[in-house]
Amino acid sequence: MRADLQQLLSGPADEVAPRLLGAILTRKIKNQILSGRIVEVEAYDQNDVASHSYRGETERTKVMFGPAGHLYVYFTYGMYYCCNVVTGPEGHGAAVLIRAVEPLEGEDVMSANRGVAGANITNGPAKLCQAFAIDRKLNGHDLASMPLKLELSQTLSNEQIVQTTRIGISQAKDVPWRFYLKGNPWVSKV
DNA sequence: TGCCTGATGTTCT
DNA sequence: GAACATCAGGCAC
């Protein structure tokens, strides 16, 4: 239900984040379909020092200030991409970082994209971008349409969701805006 | 099993 | 010129 998703995404990032858990991400590459279920996310907002949007809109972060439901892809540490779902009203810089997904379809293709045998393939923000072949070209993409689509699935109960502080950041470490599915093996780190 | 480090380049100060 | 929302491999215990 696209309208429901749009309505959900227009809310604040810290409210949207837990409700994106369980949503399905579908990627189309040539004739291949890849899909996965979101199991771990983090929220970032412009009033949050750890967010890229904290210092205002720049060439890099302008997507975060755009309409909700688009993809914000950033390049980090010289070699990795990470992807976010833009949330909140237009003009407000907020997004939800997708940190881990559980592969549903095309796991063999994801593994090939990652080029690492044996390791977990989608249990980290840069890993899932590699697995889904997401790069700068998809920055600003509308997630309501292919080649990358986001769809809500079932509603989860609060007991299935764990809320903690975010990881991998150097500022605002005490803000509890990381959410993941309890007991899911694809979560990056518990 | 767990800590430490190198790879690598974009962005902002 | 430094920081960085990361990852994988190496080495020590």
Describe this structure in words.
The chain has 190 residues and is of the alpha+beta class. Helix content is 16%, strand content 30%. A hairpin with a 3-residue loop joins strand 3 (71-76) and strand 4. Helix 3 packs across helix 4. The longest helix is centred in the N-terminal third of the chain and has 8 residues, at 2-9. It is globular, with a radius of gyration of 15 Å. It binds a DNA duplex (13 and 13 nucleotides) through strand 3, strand 4 and helix 4.
Number of strands: 8
Q: Which structural class fits the helix and strand makeup?
A: alpha+beta
Radius of gyration: 15 Å
Helix content: 10-25%
Mean pLDDT: 94
SSE series: HHEEEEEHHEEE
Estimated share of beta-strand residues:
25-35%
Q: Which regions contain 5 or more consecutive residues with pLDDT less than 50? A: none
Number of helices: 4
Termini Cα gap: 32 Å
Could you give a short account of the major beta sheet?
A: 8 strands, antiparallel
Shape category: globular
